[in-house]
Amino acid sequence: MLPEPSINEAGKVRPGQYAGRLGTKWEAWHLPMATKCPLGNGACPHCFRFDGKPFKHEPPTIYETPNLALVEGGEARLQSRLGLLDAIDRRSHSSDEGLDRHRLQALGVLNNPKARDAFLVEKADEKLLARYGRNKFGLSLLMASRLSAAGVGLVQVNLGKNSTWDTHNRNFINLRENLFPHFDRGIAALLDDLSESGRLNDTLLIVTGEFGRTPKINKDSGRDHWGAVMSLIVAGGGVTGGRIIGSSDRLGAQPATERCTPENLAATVYSALGIPPHAMWEDTDGRPYELYRADPIEGLM
Q1: At a CB cut-off of 8 Å and minimum separation 6, what does 147 contact?
Q2: pLDDT tens column, 41-90
Q3: What span, in angstroms and rounded, lies between the C-alpha atoms of 158 and 13?
Q4: What is the rounded CA–CA span in Å between residue 197 and residue 173?
Q5: Which positions ≥6 away from 296 have C-beta within 8 Å?
Q6: Which of 140, 156, 63, 149 is nearest to 113 (CA)?
Q7: Which of 137, 181, 244, 285 lies in the 20 to 30 Å Cα band around 131?
Q8: Distance, CA of 216 to chain centre
């Protein structure tokens, strides 16, 4: 998960981003690499205030990229220490599954030049940066593309912190001037790269939020929270492109045709991964659950 967890205005991490009842060993690997912008709404350094008051991105960089390169002679030392660690583990006949998982994650990055280079997006070719956009949206999507090419199976990109798309104030101006230009550029570049590299058919891309916005415009020219209707983008991974599935009524308030739910979206993903309906999983107390019961979105794949 990059470039930072979803956080609210108080700087608190939003719930729902962790493995919950699955247990900590299944949690995503969070990569909090975005610089600590005091506001952070939008695609830093093009961050903004919803009310239109002037704001300037203060940090000199967009990312605080970790230095993952081994020093000269470091690879031999690393292998020597791993050998010593394995010998200690064998002698003690002990193993910590959670610790082993994190160890493998760290080694997977240190031993994989593609994975290490994936984080150095701010030093990418200028033409590539121009295509994605030299901002937090574009660079995060470029990093996701590189991590996917390096073998990472699942990447979540948070496009801005939690409030970035919460357009209760000046909805249309902020979308047109501060959000959509950087969003459109980055997503288009990612899709182009996945297609040209031959990875799009094997990579499922989902672009979504958590709910829609009210059909009614509020007193601040904004749109508030609305759960009945929302839109999302699904591409690649066997998806039939160029289709619009479903429609709303004329106000954008309620579904009119081909109503889909979050459960249908989840079923689509699981089905694309070859996971059958009614597959079971157990929580940390050993209680069994069905993974999904809904049908995949009809006509999408």
Answers
A1: 115, 118, 155
A2: 899 999 999 999 988 888 888 888 766 665 566 666 666 666 666 666 66
A3: 13
A4: 36
A5: 264, 267, 268, 271, 272
A6: 149
A7: 244
A8: 30
